[in-house]
Amino acid sequence: MSAIISVQHLSKVYDSGFQALRDVSLDIRRGEIFALLGPNGAGKTTMISIICGIVNPSSGHITADGHDIIKDFRAARSKIGLVPQELCTDGFESVLSTVNFSRGLFGRPPNKAYIEQILRQLSLWDKRDSRIMELSGGMKRRVMIAKALSHEPEILFLDEPTAGVDVELRRDMWEMVRGLRERGVTIILTTHYIEEAEEMADRIGVISRGELILVEEKSALMDKLGQKQLRLQLQKPLLELPTELQDYPLSLTDDGLELIYHFDTQSEQTGIADLFRRLDEHGIDYKDLRSKQRSLEEIFVSLVSERATADTEAAE
Ligand SMILES: Nc1ncnc2c1ncn2[C@@H]1O[C@H](COP(=O)(O)OP(=O)(O)OP(=O)(O)O)[C@@H](O)[C@H]1O
Description:
Elements: E1 3-13, E2 19-29, E3 33-37, H1 44-51, E4 59-64, E5 67-68, H2 73-78, E6 80-83, H3 95-105, H4 112-121, H5 137-149, E7 155-159, H6 167-182, E8 186-191, H7 194-200, E9 203-208, E10 211-217, H8 218-225, E11 227-234, E12 250-252, E13 258-264, H9 272-281, E14 286-293, H10 296-315
Parallel strand pairs: 3-8, 3-9, 6-7, 7-8
Antiparallel strand pairs: 1-2, 1-4, 4-5, 9-10, 11-13, 11-14, 12-13
Helix pairs in contact: 3-5
This protein binds adenosine-5'-triphosphate.
Pfam family, one: ABC_tran
InterPro entries: AAA+_ATPase, ABC_transporter-like_ATP-bd, ABC_transporter-like_CS, ABC_transporter_ATP-binding, P-loop_NTPase
GO molecular function: ATP binding
């Protein structure tokens, strides 16, 4: 699949001297949902703002659908819709006129049928004549999406699309984003919610302290880094692990009722058969067992903290 956005060696140092991005290179594939994950202040919004022409890069080269975002700004920007983190729109205007106005800003001729289609898709058609200030928070967010889609962009940036949104609306947003992808729109979303990336993304990028520390297919990331846990519920509580079993990657819950065995899904030998044999030898009976995959959240937390430790060690 070809790249619709290409970011090459992007760095950003703000006027304050703060370096928000360091040598970031990234290709976004046409038609994918790409989730950019990272803690507060990692540089996600800075990166989006540069691609959308709101913030100037310090160095690097970016194209959107083949157009250089600086030399060929208008053509590049017309391909992009941006839903910013903050709700920013005139509360006195009606939904319909706000969305039509946004389309006009891109020099697009009016297209009633298209605007009606997006407002219907976002369940805003019945509210088209309402003033924005009269809408609920969730509806206002949907208006921001309608505005971003008004000029028929091929690329949609969603900066924290579901921050502060209730669970039901979050599910609706996910549905809507999937619908857009089916129509061929490429979607890049930033999020703190790992659950959101896990649910939605085809690929995931992790950004930490201005550096892109990982880009991976979601499924591969979960497989590669995914460790599994096998939890055995014991018939009788154990006071402690028998010494002969202490070499195993085993832990005992505080109540002594569960043994937890960690194994790598990638390794050829999980060691489970051997473990069962040893438990049998020691007369440890269990009544139930279940296995659990490490979640993306656990993977993410360990990646970012490994990175922070490596940075601290390098600085010492
Ligand atoms: N105009 C600015 N001048 C100086 N520093 C800035 C400016 N804008 C952002 N920063 C700094 O750059 C860093 C990255 O900010 P950015 O908003 O890109 O992070 P983020 O990953 O989007 O965070 P969040 O998840 O909190 O939105 C932060 O330390 C922030 O304080």
